[in-house]
Design a protein that fits this description.
This protein is of the alpha/beta class. The chain has 2 domains: about 220 residues, P-loop containing nucleotide triphosphate hydrolases (Rossmann fold, 3-Layer(aba) Sandwich); about 60 residues, Orthogonal Bundle (Histone, subunit A). It has 13 helices and 6 strands. Helix 3 crosses helix 4, helix 5 packs across helix 8 and helix 6 packs across helix 8.
Length: about 300
């Protein structure tokens, strides 16, 4: 592996300040930013996914921000191929690039490659989606617990997409989903320096609550209302939208929907930290650390 090409990967829980740090680092290294935030890929979703502001986007060139439609089928495998191709292209111009995002699987896809799963009959997923709509998530969780206890313990069990994905592999291959998670890492032609931002849990939760309030002030309700006709699409089965869809359907009050967004975002942040803490290569910094200190750490690698 050549070490003259570097990818600085910035991770951490939602609302911790990853965007601001990524722009400062991109400006310092005079380089560009790859977004690995799977919620920010979609051009119809701005407010609820905390897409960088116009001012922030002007701070450094960004890639993979609002480049897809919610109607497009763009999965983590597609992202891996597109991001690696873009990194290769940009590394011709600048030996250091910045990647930022809290979507652990998407970060892993770029830095280490995805695990290989065999193709299974697409009707299995269709049936599982129907089961989810009719009987809820708990029923699917129970199935997974029986078929693959290890996956049940290790995946984000309250994320319907992850549970359905694990189940379709179990059913389609008649082997546990977890048995496919042993593939060796792919060799990349760049090295990754991973930076994690963190804070005390109470601070993270306060920042999340404040961010949700700001999103509401900035028009999240109107944005969600315009997307309500597409609520069945996979991209919209996400925090910040599904709670408001329940409100539009008359199943909750607006105050309750907002409190659910806050609660579910806090849970999401907890899952993000659980995922990233498994990676020993991440160097953690307090979210208030001076950027100069982080730059010093990165440059000590060179």
């Amino acid at each position: 592996m050549t070490h003259n090409k570097t990818l600085i990967s910035i991770v951490g829980p939602t609302a911790i300040g990853k965007t601001a740090l990524s722009i400062k680092l991109a400006q310092h290294f005079n380089t560009e930013i790859i977004s690995a935030d799977s919620r920010q890929f979609f051009k119809e979703m701005s407010i609820g996914t905390a897409v960088p502001s116009q001012e922030e986007l002007k701070g450094a060139p960004h890639h993979f921000i609002q480049h897809q439609s919610i109607k497009d089928n763009f999965n983590v495998g597609d992202f891996e191929r597109a991001a690696i191709s873009k990194i290769k292209e940009l590394h011709q111009i600048n030996s250091t690039l910045v990647m930022v995002g809290g979507s652990g699987l998407y970060v892993k896809a770029v830095t280490k490659g995805l695990d290989y799963f065999p193709e299974v009959d697409s009707s299995i997923r269709t049936n599982l989606n129907l089961e989810f709509e009719n009987d809820g998530l708990a029923n699917l969780q129970e199935q997974l617990k029986k078929l693959d206890p290890q996956a049940y313990k290790s995946i984000a069990i309250d994320n319907p997409q992850r549970v359905i994905r694990a189940l379709e592999i179990c059913i389609g291959t008649k082997k546990p989903y977890s048995s496919f998670l042993t593939n060796p890492e792919k060799q990349r032609d760049f090295r990754t320096i991973s930076i994690g931002l963190n804070a005390e849990r109470s601070i993270i939760y306060d920042r999340i609550n404040q961010r949700v309030d700001i999103m509401i002030e900035n028009g999240l309700l109107e944005e969600a209302e315009s997307l309500f006709p597409y609520k069945h699409l996979n991209a919209l089965n996400t925090v910040g939208y599904k709670e408001l869809f329940a409100y539009f359907e008359g199943n909750s009050t607006l105050d309750f929907a907002i409190s659910e967004i806050k609660k579910n975002t806090r849970r999401f942040a907890k899952r993000q930290l659980t995922w990233f803490r498994k990676d020993d290569s991440i160097k953690w910094f307090d979210f208030e650390t001076d950027t100069k200190e982080i730059i010093k750490y990165i440059e000590s690698y060179k």
